[in-house]
Write a structure and sequence with these properties.
Layout lengths: L2 E18 L2 E21 L2 E16 L8 E14 L3 E12 L7 E13 L2 E8 L6 E8 L2 E8 L4 E8 L3
Antiparallel strand pairs: 1-2, 2-3, 3-4, 4-5, 5-6, 6-7, 7-10, 8-9
């Protein structure tokens, strides 16, 4: 049985200059981040992993009101099953939350895979983006600038891989 866990916490404040139209502006900010990384193998046939991150930050120009807090949460998890006879099943989930995003503030991506090995052959059937998400929005707050990016996601796909080991 193999188990591991790592947790991190960071909190910091800053006071920086920013050159805007030939004028130096001072801005301050606060940030907080918490991370976790956990791996468990409670049985020979089951392995689990989780990585998570929570962060929040806010900035403000000296003499003005603070920008709203930017809060993000990222979660990644996987389950790996090994079934007698050489069959493996794997599932993975990715979740991203951002309170600055318009509309749906959460994004989920789910994948599944089944594998089988026989002598020198291995067969893997995988399905990515099971929920068929079309896009992913990323928002950020850096210095005094808020930015957003829209990424198109590859649609649901199914792939069969066949491998032959030469040696």
């Amino acid at each position: 049985m193999c188990n591991s866990a790592t947790f991190r916490f960071s909190d910091y404040s800053y006071d920086n200059p920013l050159l805007v139209q030939e004028e130096i502006l001072r801005y301050t900010g606060n940030s907080l981040a918490i991370e976790a990384d956990i791996s468990l193998t409670p049985f020979r046939w089951l392995a689990m992993s989780y990585q998570g991150n929570y962060s929040q930050s806010a900035t403000r120009q000296k003499g003005l009101e603070r920008f709203p807090w930017l809060r993000t949460v990222t979660n990644r998890g996987s389950l790996d099953f090994t079934i007698p006879g050489g069959v493996t099943l794997t599932t993975s989930l990715y979740h991203y939350y951002n309170n600055f995003n318009d509309g749906d503030k959460s994004f989920f991506l789910l994948n599944a895979e089944a594998g089988y090995s026989f002598r020198r052959f291995s067969f893997t059937l995988s399905c990515d983006n099971l929920l068929n998400r079309k896009s992913y929005i990323y928002s950020d707050l850096s210095a005094l600038t808020e930015s957003k990016a829209l990424y198109n996601i590859r649609p649901r796909s199914v792939l069969l891989k066949i491998r032959f080991r030469i040696l």
